Amino acid sequence: MKDEIINLEENKAHGSPMLPFFIYLDMNLNKEEEIYCHWHKEVEFIYVEKGSINFNIDMNEVIISQGECILINKGILHFGKSLSAEQSIHHAIVFDLDFLSSGIYDYCQSKYLDPLINGKRLFPMVIDNSKQWGNEVTQEINFSIKYYRQKKAGWEIGLKASLLKVISILSENDAFDNKDIFKETTKGHKLEVIKNIINYIHENYENKIYVESLAKIANMNTQYFCKFFKAHTGKTPIDYVNQYRIEKAIKFFENEDKKIIDICYDVGFENFSYFIKKFKEYKKYTPAKFRKMIK
User: Residues 64, 29: contact at Cβ < 8 Å?
Assistant: First the structure.
């Protein structure tokens, strides 16, 4: 799979104003390949078709395997890593909750959709397939994927109906999560610290970045900050900076004809040999070979 750089807060459009949703079909991850740490304003439903993926969602670790689903609420920080010996395959449905609203303000909007849109009610993180309602939700998510893949006449209505059916099933079985204000406030502070640090890295990756400076931004001592950062992103600060720089280098490979050594320095590496070493560590290929593969 060609890696795609995603800012911590995704700002790319998922779909269009008339159809504010997009389904990323057949997303392949090789062993230990990662889904980059990010969040977005849309809800995301993920269905694993093959293999297993270890997700970290809102600081909660969860492993989902073939035939299982997770639901990620809007604005939630999440990342993941494939656990499969071979390639894993998953599909991601990303949509704006307003897509499910109607032009007429009715009881359905007031009772079921508004609490989700306003964040007063949350989708459950993991769908329990051992329960009948879990199987029904998973089935509707699969219907959505089928409608999108085939795109027969009326597919948009079928897809929207399946997403609404998911809400209906969860409501019927009292499976939604209600916000715990105290818990959300505490967790929200930690997330804000992580977001501030990663945004700083994204804005300053071309320059020298010291762990001590990141710790100062987080108002923590360096040792505690390193543990805190890894616990919530799955990476040490140095690993995160290096990987982000490599992702930016790949963007240059795709769009620029510069020499690799020049790109190395442009993205913030100070040593070309170290850049090659880290690139091969993260991408399994040298920069030169990887560039040929994606051209």
Answer: no
